[in-house]
Amino acid sequence: MNMHAPIEGEAVAERAPRRLRTWQKAALVVVPVGVVAAGFSLSGRNAPAVAAPVAPVVTVATPLAREVNEWDEYVGRFEASRTVEVRPRVSGAVTAIHFKDGMVVKQGQLLFTIDPRPFTAALAEAKAGVASAQSDLALARSDLDRAQRLVSVEAVSKSDVERLQARVRAATAAVAAAEARVRARALDVEFTQVRAPISGRISDRKVDPGNLVAAGEGQGGTLLTTINALDPIYFTFDGSEALFLKAKRAAGSSASPVEIRLQDEGDYRWKGQIDFTDNGLDPKSGTIRGRAVLSNKDMFLTPGMFGNMRLAAGGKAQALLVPDAAIQTDQARKLVLTVGADGTVVPKPVVLGPVVDGLRIVRSGLAPQDKVVIAGTQFAQPGGKVQPKAGTIAPNAATDAPIVSAPVTGQATFAR
After folding, report:
1. Kind and range of the H or E element at 146?
2. C-alpha dist (Å) from residue 394 to 64, 320, 322
3. How far is residue 183's CA from residue 397's CA, in Å, rounded to a whole number?
4. What distance in Å separates the CA atoms of residue 169 and residue 154, rounded to the nearest whole number?
5. Cross-strand pairs, 291
6. What are the backbone dihedrals phi and psi of residue 409, each rounded to the nearest 5 degrees, phi first?
7. End-to-end CA distance of the chain
8. In terms of C-beta density within 10 A (0-12 exposed, 13-18 middle, 19 or more buried), how is residue 108 classed?
9. How many CB atoms lie within 10 A of CB 281?
10. Cβ proximity of 323 and 393 under 8 Å
């Protein structure tokens, strides 16, 4: 018994350090975890509350109310008011050309000379024929006078007198025919000088001196050149049925004024009037052809030139205008963002008109007192809150040309 007692004491002594080492390891794990948890608990108590987001600042302004003239927009080309193809009226050889290609000519100005010698000879022959016919007429009248003096003494029969009277009438007719041939031959001589039938700008010559040209009916004659009358000049265009009806209902007794700008121009400097509309619409395209006439004193406008025309669409009208940048698109609708009294963003569907001096006409959907978001629209969300900052809407006088991306066909100008 005494022999085993020390052995058990030694075993207990060995197990005691092992238990101490196990508790030390547990303490090394539990204590840091508790400290970290206590730290999170303390930081949670001391953290400040999250602040509410600040409402974005946007610029708002009431729509600009102005009186405007609305115009309907058309596209067309210029045409000569008259066009003539110069062709010879007699056949022969061209001996001279009396103009420079492309110059402006006056009516009656000499353009070509055709060799007149054959026609001068024919004229002389015709004049000789007149003299012969006049001689025959004089002889017939003399014979008739003698016969009439002998009728009273019954030296000549009545039938002979009647034959002499018929001879006088035939000789008179022969003289008239000979004189007509003289006039015809004189015209041929005159036609050897080809003159300008109208005033205008002439094209280039189609023949040179020495060439033979032929007279003919219509297109059968040789084409010498063409002349376009440019003052006045026409502007032709095609309008839709809707625009035609609109202009028809608004038209008065006077001609409708138009303004035209060229492809490289920003303003409508060419003024004219509608002088013709066709007598029917094209059933295939639903359009009708119209024409305006313009003065062209300096011959600057040229046939075939492209132009944009605007036609007054019904006089002056009061309109509300906003910047084009304020217009939003929601699928097929156009919207304007407005700000209410409490700072809430309210979208309003609108019906738009044309652009005038950089501002878009709003035909309906907007009130004069509405505060429209004109800057910062990317921060304004429908139904959200914003901080409105007062701004102004002013026209941009430099922007007078129509915007290609406009949702309507038309334009407007401020009334003066």
Report:
1. helix 117-151
2. 7, 12, 9
3. 68
4. 24
5. 236, 276
6. -90, 110
7. 133
8. exposed
9. 17
10. yes
How much is the pLDDT for 414? 63
Cβ neighbourhood burial of 136 (10 Å; 0-12, 13-18, 19+): middle
Would you tell me the crossing angle of helices 117-151 and 158-191 to the nearest 10 degrees? 160
For residue 351 the two structure tokens come to: 């019906």
Look-up: residue for tokens 């929601």?
330
Q: What is the pLDDT of residue 254?
A: 56
Strands in 193-195's sheet, in edge-to-edge order, are: 193-195, 110-114, 92-97, 212-213
- What's the CA gap between 199 and 106, in Å, rounded? 4
Q: Model pTM?
A: 0.64
Euclidean distance between CA atoms 180 and 225, whole angstroms: 31
Q: What angle do CA 308, 313, 314 make, to 5 degrees?
A: 155
List pLDDT tens digits, range 152-198.
777 778 888 888 899 999 999 999 999 999 999 999 999 999 999 99
- Residue owning tokens 């492809």: 263
List phi, psi (to 5°) of 282: -75, 115
Confirm if 292 and 235 have CB atoms less than 8 A apart: yes
Which residues sit opposite 238 in a β-bridge? 289
Residue 44 · residue 300 · CB < 8 Å: no
Residue 286 per-residue DSSP state: T
